[in-house]
Amino acid sequence: MQTVGTDIQLPKDLYLEATSRCNLRCKGCILFNGGWEPQRDLSLIELIMICDQLPVLSRVALHGIGEPLLNDELPGMIRYLKDRKASVFLNSNGTLLNERRGNQLLDAGLDELRISLDAASPAGYKAVRNSDEFHRVVANVRAFSKHIKSMHLPCPKLSLWFLGTRENISELPDFVRLAASLGVAEVYLQRLVYFQDDQGYGLAKSEKTLMGSDAAITGWINESHAIAEQSGVRFNAPAFASPFDSLQARTGNPFPWRKCYRPHTLMYITAGGNVLPCCISPFAVSNYGSIILGNVFYRSLSEIWSGSRYRIFREKRQTQTPPECCRGCGTLWSL
Predict the structure, then answer these.
(1) Cα(228)–Cα(303) distance, rounded to whole angstroms?
(2) Binning pLDDT at 50, 70 and 90, where does residue 112 land?
(3) Parallel, antiparallel, or unpaired: how do β-strands 157-164 and 186-191 relate?
(4) Distance (Å, rounded) from C-alpha 82 to C-alpha 166?
């Protein structure tokens, strides 16, 4: 059994940031605010060095802040992880998902591809993702979906993701219709994450969130659910039973962050080697140094996982005043 100390196992799940570079500057992303780290790609050699320290790998995400398809070594990373019997998924903006890159993902054995689109129209896409590439992304997803079906492949599972804000929620029903027209069987409504210790940036501000939705917002979500049922599209939200439930701040637990499993089960590692508590944390606080728990280029995973920073983080998370990045967990965003 792989263990650290006497009571906590090394993680079997990893978030490995394939790159911190991106070709977009979306208004809900930290890169719109300038980003936290120098832009670089994680190399295949670095990925192997990291993963070889873990005897068991179960699930690996190859995304973080940047756009994974910018990393030319991505197919090799997927192949290595599949040889390790891990389930591999990644999130992409889809702008680079041309035929060549799509075939590379298929040949490498990718299990799941999530496309962040956030809109059902060019104008809506421009408002949220700060880009004029809407039609390109739609064409890329349509062609990739058609190719998967023509080859009768079970993988990768393909889904469209919608970052819900007060700027774009009216497009959600058409977004579900778009997914159905593209042959994509799964749609996710994702909550906006914003700084807990700063006024924020772009769309990443508390006043842009859908929490405490009014009648109009509830109506668009209910309409989207009905369209999904009629179209055979699964309409989901991360870690919740339904998209509507995901927007309710009510909780019977005054300290819901205590139930978060991430600090005990997974590691998030940036392209620069920094270990963070989870994929939400870099979006939740402006004090980036407060969420760095170590660096894999200077210390082993075992040393970081059992080190004092991680231990103190885990202990503080069990109090009434958890680390700043955890204070929205279970209410503002998913556990």
Answers:
(1) 47
(2) very high
(3) parallel
(4) 39
